[in-house]
């Protein structure tokens, strides 16, 4: 079956792109399998250390459990990418209209889901911020100790020192009148009445993330355009194949 110039270009692009997806999906899946089942190869002492390691900044998080959940996610994502890439690659190589249509539909659904997800996140950004703030404040109120030597208290104090901030929105979020020295710019004895108490941490963390918004937007738009082109190339190739049959 001889295809026109445009259809041939679309075919080559789809084959190249989806071959990359095949390799990428396979790599992600293998990484997930290694994380998931490779822990059996770890020594008992190392496994026990991972199981006992916890990060408790916004709630108890067991590193070993997180690694297990992440590995399962990698396996699922890797398999899905491999499947989609296989559909696109086989459909283009074999000039199979059914595979190409299924591939285009899946990619289009992903495109719509991503757009809806971004729209929902933008619409509920304030509620998301409020929820995250509430979590931080709850930890400060119920678990944080200004003079504590536990991991949680030391983690928060390190955060205050790193970002030169105090509390979530302000010093009012701190549970005691006496504040850690990290909350003040110069005072060694820091209290809520000190004149050099630093501002809240959440706005500073948010500002640091927001400075990369242009990068996130650029990458996101590029991915969406790329997916849309894959859908268009698939349908163009389908039409060309139909004309040749």
UniProtKB/TrEMBL annotation:
<dbReference type="GO" id="GO:0005886">
    <property type="term" value="C:plasma membrane"/>
</dbReference>
<feature type="transmembrane region" description="Helical">
    <location>
        <begin position="70"/>
        <end position="93"/>
    </location>
</feature>
<dbReference type="InterPro" id="IPR000301">
    <property type="entry name" value="Tetraspanin_animals"/>
</dbReference>
<dbReference type="InterPro" id="IPR008952">
    <property type="entry name" value="Tetraspanin_EC2_sf"/>
</dbReference>
<feature type="disulfide bond">
    <location>
        <begin position="165"/>
        <end position="201"/>
    </location>
</feature>
<feature type="transmembrane region" description="Helical">
    <location>
        <begin position="12"/>
        <end position="35"/>
    </location>
</feature>
<keyword id="KW-0472">Membrane</keyword>
<keyword id="KW-1133">Transmembrane helix</keyword>
<comment type="similarity">
    <text>Belongs to the tetraspanin (TM4SF) family.</text>
</comment>
<feature type="disulfide bond">
    <location>
        <begin position="166"/>
        <end position="183"/>
    </location>
</feature>
<feature type="transmembrane region" description="Helical">
    <location>
        <begin position="215"/>
        <end position="241"/>
    </location>
</feature>
<keyword id="KW-0812">Transmembrane</keyword>
<dbReference type="InterPro" id="IPR018499">
    <property type="entry name" value="Tetraspanin/Peripherin"/>
</dbReference>
<keyword id="KW-1015">Disulfide bond</keyword>
<dbReference type="Pfam" id="PF00335">
    <property type="entry name" value="Tetraspanin"/>
</dbReference>
<feature type="transmembrane region" description="Helical">
    <location>
        <begin position="100"/>
        <end position="124"/>
    </location>
</feature>
<protein>
    <recommendedName>
        <fullName>Tetraspanin</fullName>
    </recommendedName>
</protein>
């Amino acid at each position: 079956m001889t295809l026109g110039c445009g259809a041939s270009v679309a075919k080559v692009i789809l084959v190249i792109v989806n071959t990359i997806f095949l390799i990428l999906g396979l790599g992600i899946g293998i990484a997930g399998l290694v994380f998931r089942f490779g822990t059996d190869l770890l020594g008992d002492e190392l496994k026990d250390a991972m199981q006992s390691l916890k990060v408790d900044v916004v709630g108890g998080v067991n590193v070993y459990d997180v690694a297990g959940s992440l590995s399962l996610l990698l396996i699922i994502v890797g398999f899905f990418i491999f499947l989609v890439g296989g559909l696109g690659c086989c459909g283009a190589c074999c000039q199979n209209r059914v595979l190409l249509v299924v591939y285009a539909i899946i990619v289009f659904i992903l495109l719509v889901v991503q757009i809806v997800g971004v729209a929902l996140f933008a619409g509920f950004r304030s509620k998301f911020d409020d929820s995250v703030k509430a979590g931080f404040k709850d930890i400060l109120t119920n678990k944080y100790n200004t003079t504590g030597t536990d991991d949680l208290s030391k983690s928060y104090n390190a955060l205050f020192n790193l970002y030169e901030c105090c509390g979530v929105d302000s010093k009012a979020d701190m549970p005691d009148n006496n504040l850690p020295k990290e909350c003040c710019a110069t005072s060694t004895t820091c209290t809520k009445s000190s004149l050099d108490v630093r501002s809240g941490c959440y706005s500073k963390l948010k500002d640091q993330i927001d400075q990369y918004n242009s990068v996130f937007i650029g990458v996101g738009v590029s991915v969406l355009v790329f997916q849309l082109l894959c859908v268009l190339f698939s349908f163009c190739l389908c039409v060309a194949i139909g004309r040749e049959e």
